[in-house]
Each structure stands twice: as structure tokens, then as C-alpha cells.
């Protein structure tokens, strides 16, 4: 990274520790490395004698032990108990050896955190609020979520949501600044939680957060460092160990095999394109019973997008280092699948190119021959993502024999216009696959909205000089995200296929709950949840 140190890719989120017991009798709070105890605050319930924000079980235990009226503190701080609120109470220390305060054995801070109705979304937001309120500390103890339910499954679900929100919001982007931002607390202790199911839930949350951190790290790395070769090197470095296989194809191989889309998009750049495949094969895959499926995830990997000869305005170029987020999601998903012990074979296919401009750039009006021989008329060189995806999808269909084929891409501004920043646009040819991805999005908090493959819009990809035209000639059709999906559908054969257009939720202009400013990492948690629940 010019002017700074190279970024560290593949960082590990903070530790999470499970300890049984309650605040009232835990010796943990007297330890010197505990900087804060976080307690939950719920909204008032109509009919209560005091209709202010109500401390929950852990808060009441803390209040009883240390003689602090937390309900009054919450009310004075203006808290309502809504999920994601927080307030830090700094406790005064004894002025001398002869002074004894009732809270003298408590850590120096109490963090009041709103938990709403304790739904998964609420607890994810509570965890995120706690992460931001505890930056720069060492160890934070919390009882949040310990009364979310009486069954082991309810306790596990609550712990997963809380930890996921905490670890996602604890993320700090790689920085070349001489004074980097404060780091998250090194250890989060869940007090009152133990057992196999809760431990497995916390492990699942860590796997999901680790995958998201990787996507954010890769997408946040500036294009001055990040080119197709660099991403290929990261894939080789990260995908090591039993069960992994990595293949990298350079310009010579791409030319020999007829990848006309990837080569055309990358032709104007000094950094040649690559096609990377990373496969995880679990030990139990296949065998006599034919157990497990082969899921292939294709991710758009445009390491920087100027728009090519159809050049973007300057303002639109600023976030374009993140235009390879789809490839980052695909890579993080296959690594996360291995870490989580997914029983299915998973392959990430990363078509990587920099869409620049120069004497060798492809032009509007060109006709390209894609992998497999389909010809495509070019109308706009700033619609490059669907070209590299088309090559990769056609190749995956022809050579990898997937049971499930999914592509993920920051593909169209139209998806953002239609759905905003919270939902991705979800398309597909298989009802069960689309429903499963939609459900995984809801469960993970990475929401996807099902969109139609409108048959009447199919004429938008017709061409008079080639097999297909990659953007509509008739601008009155509109529906840019739909027509892009219709174009991609031509390259997937008869596979069960789904397309996630993540242009909206992949980037954020500010921190909000578990979402971080800049690259959000959207997509990795959704796909990992899908894979772990796939039968």
C-alpha cells in the first residue's frame, strides 16, 4: 500500500467467553482486567407501576449487588429500552483508603443497552451497540440475552444473535494512518451462559463474523494495492489445508479457453485479468451414499471500475474499489464453509479484472465471443460486471457440474433505486433455491427481496448483430436489474440458479447497528446460513 503498510487480510474477531452464573455471585467482576459490565434495558410495559425503561434480569442482579438504581439511571439518560440504545455510566472510584462505596468491587463502567423485544434483530442491534460503546477496553462482561428464553434452543439463538451483532460492529477497517482508530474490546464474556448448544451457537456467530470481516477487508483495500493478481494471491494464501484446491488462470489460459468477456473487460488495464477457483471438498462428500451437494458460487471481481470508455463521473468512481465485493463474498463463503464443517462441496469462482481505459479497451459496438461461443453485442462498457459473470457462469455450467449455481455481484444501480440499502435483489430459476436463500437472508439479518424474471422483458437482451445484447436497446423497458438477470440466465444452462444483486447493501455511508461504514460484507452470512441449513 503506497504510503503505508500492506493491509492484513483474514483478521480474527475478538474473543468470546462463556461463563455460568449470575452477577450476584460472580467473582469475575472483581478481576482487574474487567473494564465494564453491560446490562440489558427493556422498554416499559403498559400498566407497570413505573412506566420507564425496565432493567432485565441481569440488570436487576447488578443493581441488587451494588445498590445502584439502574432504572433511574436509564430514565435520566433518556433511554427507552429500544434495541440499539446505549449509555455508559462511569462509576466514581474511592478517594482514599478510608472510603468505602457500595460499588467499589464493580468494574469502572456500567453500559446500559436497550434490547427491545429481544428478537434476533433486537439482540443483534444490542450486541452492535455494546461493541461501539466498549471500544478501547480490555474485557467486557454482559448478561444481555441470558433471559431470552428457558429452552436451550432459545438461549443458543439469543447468544448467536448477540455475539454476531457484537463481532460485526467491532470491525475496524485496515488503516495506513499513523494513529489508527480504537480497537474493540479484546474479550466479551457472556455471563450466565454455558452448555454445548450455546457454545455451538457462539462458534457459528464467530464463523459468520469472520467471513464478513474478510469481505470487508478485501473490499476496503485500495485499488493501488488490490488488482486481479493480488486477489489471486490472497486466495492461495487463505485457502490452505486438507480439502482445499485452488486454480488460477492467467491471460494465456483465458485466451486459449475462449473467455472473451473477462479478457475484453480487462484489456484496457495494465493489470491483466485472472480467473480463480477455490474448492472445498469435505471428507464426507460423495462416497457410496452420494452424500452432499456441489454448490458453486460465482462472484463479480472488478478490482476497480472506471466505466471503461463509457467513463463514470468522478463521484461515482470513488467507491469503485468495492466493485469486487461479489468475489470477496464467494471466497469468504467457501473458507467459512470449511471452518463451519459444511457437509457440501463448495466452489468459489472469481472472475477478476480491472475495468480501465486505454488503447486496447473494448468499445461500445464491439461483438464479443464468450466462453462456450455465445456472441454478445456491447452497448456500454460500464456494464462490465455481467460480462465477466457470463463467462464464469458458462464455464461453471460446462465444467463443474454444480447441483446449485449462485452468483453474487454489485451489479446494477437499478437494484439500489428499487430496494435501497437494506435489501439485495434476488432472482432465480428454482423455487426451492430462491425460497431457501430468502429464508437464510431473514435468519441472518442480510435481507433479500425476491424479484421476477419478467418474460416480457426478455426482448431487452435481443441483438440484430449477435446472439445477445448485454444492455437494453429500448430504454423505455427500464427494470435494469431485471434485464441484467435475464442476460445472466442465458449462461447457466438448466442448472438450479440464483442471482443476488447486492449493489445496495454492499456499501454503507455510515455505521448503523451491525453494518459498518464503507464495505459492509453483505452476502457472506446469508450464503453461509444457506449452506449450513442445506440438506
From TrEMBL:
Q: Lineage, please?
A: Bacteria, Bacillati, Actinomycetota, Actinomycetes, Micrococcales
Span of domain Cytosol aminopeptidase: 380-387
Known Gene3D superfamilies for this protein?
A: Leucine Aminopeptidase, subunit E, domain 1, Zn peptidases
Q: Which GO terms describe its biological process?
A: proteolysis
* Family recorded in the similarity comment: Belongs to the peptidase M17 family.
GO CC field: cytoplasm
User: Which organism does this record belong to?
Assistant: Cellulomonas gelida
**What SUPFAM superfamilies does the annotation carry?**
Macro domain-like, Zn-dependent exopeptidases
Q: Which UniProt keywords apply?
A: Aminopeptidase, Hydrolase, Protease
Q: Which InterPro entries match?
A: Leucine_aapep/pepB, Macro_dom-like, Peptidase_M17_C, Peptidase_M17_N
Gene Ontology molecular-function annotations = manganese ion binding; metalloaminopeptidase activity
Q: What does this protein do?
A: Presumably involved in the processing and regular turnover of intracellular proteins. Catalyzes the removal of unsubstituted N-terminal amino acids from various peptides.
Q: Spell out the protein name for this chain.
A: Probable cytosol aminopeptidase
Amino acid at each position: 500500500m503506497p504510503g503505508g503498510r500492506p493491509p492484513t487480510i483474514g483478521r480474527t474477531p475478538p474473543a468470546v467467553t462463556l461463563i455460568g452464573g449470575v452477577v450476584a455471585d460472580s467473582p469475575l467482576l472483581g478481576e482487574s482486567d474487567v473494564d465494564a459490565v453491560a446490562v440489558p434495558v427493556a422498554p416499559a410495559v403498559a400498566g407497570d407501576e413505573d412506566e420507564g425503561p425496565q432493567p432485565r434480569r441481569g440488570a436487576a442482579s447488578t443493581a441488587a449487588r451494588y445498590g445502584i438504581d439502574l432504572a433511574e439511571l436509564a430514565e435520566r439518560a433518556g433511554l427507552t429500552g429500544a434495541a440499539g440504545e446505549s449509555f455508559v455510566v462511569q462509576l466514581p472510584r474511592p478517594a482514599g483508603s478510608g472510603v468505602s462505596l457500595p460499588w467499589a468491587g464493580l468494574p469502572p463502567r456500567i453500559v446500559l443497552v436497550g434490547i427491545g423485544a429481544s428478537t434476533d434483530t433486537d439482540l443483534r442491534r444490542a450486541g452492535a451497540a455494546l461493541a461501539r460503546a466498549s471500544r478501547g477496553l480490555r474485557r467486557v462482561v454482559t448478561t444481555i440475552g441470558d433471559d431470552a428464553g428457558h429452552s436451550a434452543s432459545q438461549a443458543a439463538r439469543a447468544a448467536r444473535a448477540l455475539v454476531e451483532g457484537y463481532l460485526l460492529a467491532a470491525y475496524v477497517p485496515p488503516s495506513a494512518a499513523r494513529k489508527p482508530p480504537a480497537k474493540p474490546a479484546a474479550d466479551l464474556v457472556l455471563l450466565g451462559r454455558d452448555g454445548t448448544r450455546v457454545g455451538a451457537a457462539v462458534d457459528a456467530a464467530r464463523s459468520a463474523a469472520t467471513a464478513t470481516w474478510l469481505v470487508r477487508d478485501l473490499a476496503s483495500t485500495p485499488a493501488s494495492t488490490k488488482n486481479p493478481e493480488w486477489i489471486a494471491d490472497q486466495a492461495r494464501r487463505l485457502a490452505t489445508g486438507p480439502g482445499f484446491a485452488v486454480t488460477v488462470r492467467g491471460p494465456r489460459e483465458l485466451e486459449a479457453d475462449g473467455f472473451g468477456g473477462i479478457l475484453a473487460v480487462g484489456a484496457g488495464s495494465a493489470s491483466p485479468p485472472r480467473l480463480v477457483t477455490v474448492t472445498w471438498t469435505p471428507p464426507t462428500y460423495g462416497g457410496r451414499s452420494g452424500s452432499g451437494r456441489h454448490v458453486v458460487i460465482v462472484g463479480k471481481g472488478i478490482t476497480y471500475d472506471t466505466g471503461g470508455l463509457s467513463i463514470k463521473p468522478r463521484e461515482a468512481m470513488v467507491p469503485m474499489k468495492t466493485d469486487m465485493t461479489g468475489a470477496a463474498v464467494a471466497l469468504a463463503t467457501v473458507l467459512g464453509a470449511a471452518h463451519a464443517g459444511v457437509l457440501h462441496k463448495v466452489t468459489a469462482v472469481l472472475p477478476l479484472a480491472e475495468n480501465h481505459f486505454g488503447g486496447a479497451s473494448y468499445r461500445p459496438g464491439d461483438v464479443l465471443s464468450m466462453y462456450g461461443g455465445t456472441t454478445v453485442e456491447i452497448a456500454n462498457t460500464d456494464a462490465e460486471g455481467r460480462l465477466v459473470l457470463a463467462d464464469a457462469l458458462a464455464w461453471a455450467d460446462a465444467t463443474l457440474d454444480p447441483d446449485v449455481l449462485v452468483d453474487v455481484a454489485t451489479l446494477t444501480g437499478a437494484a439500489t433505486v428499487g430496494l435501497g440499502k437494506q435489501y439485495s435483489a434476488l432472482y432465480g430459476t428454482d423455487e426451492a433455491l430462491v425460497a431457501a436463500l430468502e429464508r437464510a437472508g431473514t435468519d441472518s439479518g442480510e435481507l433479500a427481496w425476491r424479484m421476477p424474471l419478467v418474460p416480457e422483458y426478455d426482448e431487452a437482451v435481443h441483438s440484430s448483430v449477435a446472439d445477445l445484447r448485454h444492455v437494453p436497446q429500448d430504454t423505455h423497458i427500464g427494470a435494469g436489474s431485471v434485464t441484467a438477470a435475464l442476460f445472466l440466465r442465458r449462461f447457466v444452462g438448466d442448472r438450479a440458479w440464483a442471482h443476488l444483486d447486492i449493489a445496495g447493501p454492499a456499501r454503507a455511508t455510515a455505521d448503523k447497528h451491525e453494518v459498518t461504514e464503507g464495505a459492509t460484507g453483505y452476502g457472506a452470512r446469508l450464503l453461509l446460513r444457506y449452506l449450513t441449513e442445506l440438506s
